Amino acid sequence: MKLFLDTNALIDLVADHEPFSFDVQKLCVAQAFGDVQLWASTQSYADAYYVLCRTAPRKAVKEALAATLEFVLVTGTFAADLKPALESDWDDVEDYLIAYSSRRIEADFVITRDEELAGKCPVKALTAAQFLAHMEEQEGLVYDEVPLP
Q: What's the first-to-final CA gap in the chain, in angstroms?
């Protein structure tokens, strides 16, 4: 199952943005078990870098984003996507590019906290918590800490 991480999910993960980061970390566990593939856009990495550098050292941000490349697959946006994005009725061009990049890779879900993106996205959009609840309900899979005796 392919999950496309919106920029806010990537930032939540890299910045350990509570309370959202815990659920995105669980998606990384699901990926490690081979239950999902995590995808993101090159644009999301650029946007995350810009946002995170406002509160953290550039080198640390680069290292943290680079570390995610061990388990996140990355796809780019294409020049052909830009004109339709600018001609669309979408107020947020970045959201349009995320939505249509997710469709291009045939993602099953977009993981986002952006309600506007979720409402317009051609791919079903859920928060990380909603997706985890879906996996528990539909697949019987739970990604949670297990206390050891």
A: 33
CA triple 137-139-143, angle to 5 deg: 85
Residue 95 sits at the vertex; the CA angle it makes with 90 and 100, to the nearest 5 degrees, is 95
Q: Taking a C-beta distance cutoff of 8 angstroms, is the pair 98, 4 a contact?
A: yes
Write down the domain spans for the chain.
Answer: 2-138
- In the structure encoding, which two tokens stand for residue 48, read together? 């995350």
Amino acid at 65: L
Model confidence pLDDT, tens digit, residues 31-59:
999 999 999 999 999 999 999 999 999 99
In terms of CATH, what superfamily is 2-138? Answer: 5'-nuclease (3.40.50.1010)
φ, ψ of residue 134 to 5 degrees: the values are -60, -45
Q: How far is CA 80 from CA 68, 105, 118, in A?
A: 27, 15, 23
